[in-house]
From TrEMBL:
Tagged with keyword Metal-binding: yes
Entry-linked InterPro entries: HIPP
Full protein name: Heavy-metal-associated domain-containing protein
Keywords attached to this entry: Metal-binding
A single GO molecular function term of this UniProt record: metal ion binding
């Protein structure tokens, strides 16, 4: 069953990041890789997480598994709350005014 694994990988060198990404990409069963959050590497798919950790430790010594969970989308049946649109007041028009000295 596919699962989602989050690795703690706090690397500042671009060379080590590329090597770690190459290790993860070459691993069989990986379907999605996410590195948007700083210091975290999220991997989805069907793979042996301990073997991947072992291979990542060869690239960078300080790699840990932070979280493991089932691969899946969050529930989309959440009720969306619509914010009421603010009412915009129109500026008064002076054409409709009936003033004596503008006739």
């Amino acid at each position: 069953m596919p699962e989602k694994v989050v690795f703690k990988l706090e690397v500042f060198e671009e060379r080590i990041k590329r090597r770690a990404m190459k290790v993860v990409c070459d691993f069989p069963g990986v379907t999605l890789i996410d590195v948007k959050e700083k210091g975290k590497l999220k991997v989805n798919g069907e793979f042996d997480k301990f073997e991947m950790t072992k291979k990542l430790k060869k690239v960078y010594e300080f790699v840990d598994i932070i979280a493991v969970g089932p691969d899946g989308e969050p529930a989309k049946n959440q009720k969306l709350v619509k914010k009421p649109e603010p009412k915009v007041k129109k500026a008064p028009s002076y054409r409709g005014w009936n003033l004596g000295f503008f006739k």
